[in-house]
Amino acid sequence: QITLKESGPTLVKPTQTLTLTCTFSGFSLSNGGVGVGWIRQPPGKALEWLALIFWNDDKRYSPSLKSRLTITKDTSKNQVVLTMTNMDPVDTATYYCAHRFDYDYYFDQWGQGTLVTVSS
Amino acid sequence: QSALTQPASVSGSPGQSIAISCTGTSSDVGAYNYVSWYQQHPGKAPKVMIYDVSNRPSGVSNRFSGSKSGNTASLTISGLQAEDEADYYCCSYRGSSTLAVFGGGTKLTVL
Known about the structure:
The complex is a heterodimer. By secondary structure, chain A is mostly beta strands. Helices cover 0% and strands 51% of the residues of chain A. In chain A, a hairpin with a 7-residue loop joins strand 9 (93-101) and strand 10. Chain A is globular, with a radius of gyration of 14 Å. By secondary structure, chain B is mainly β. Chain B is 0% helix and 41% strand. In chain B, strands 1, 3, 4, 7, 8 and 9 form a six-stranded mixed β-sheet that branches. A three-stranded antiparallel β-sheet of chain B has the order 2-6-5, with no helix packed on it. Chain B is globular, with a radius of gyration of 13 Å. Chain A binds chain B through residues 37, 39, 45-49, 52, 60, 62-63, 96, 104-108, 110-113, and chain B through 2, 32, 34, 36, 38, 45-48, 51-52, 57, 89, 91, 93, 96-105.
């Protein structure tokens, strides 16, 4: 059974860097064929894909946010970390991490999400 | 402004069928058979209902079906039930540099 859970600060100030951690179980990123992505959703708005890291450390980013994002993995801890620099109030959103197989093109399992508010 | 265009809302009565459209471009929906649909109830995480245009994951009701024509994909829900009331998002692959683009979401109301 695959599970994912996001963790991190609930409140960050403008210009600060956000660091979110996705802790997962039921699969390993040291094995071939899997990836973990991040998707966000501002309150009352649509989903937006942010980044994805594959088992082989291949990393992909949303072109519009690429300069602000870094995704890494720690296979020993079963964690994926997303950092986003220069946070702004428009970045207020629920941030989800999700699992996909590298040969698929959809996210089959999602975490519960974590709400991050950007405010001074 | 989302990459894919969906109607903001649709509604139907129990037992009826509804369809939600998702319009993209020849660079995403029209180029690949990698359209997926997600159901999201209030305060919950999205759940995949359809992948690769028309495939249902195990456990998803066969009342949900998907199709595509040109740059537009569609999700059809037949035999509407109260539990189907939720937001629905389409998603498409757009090439190796943009792995996923989402639609703006459609709120389904079961009357």
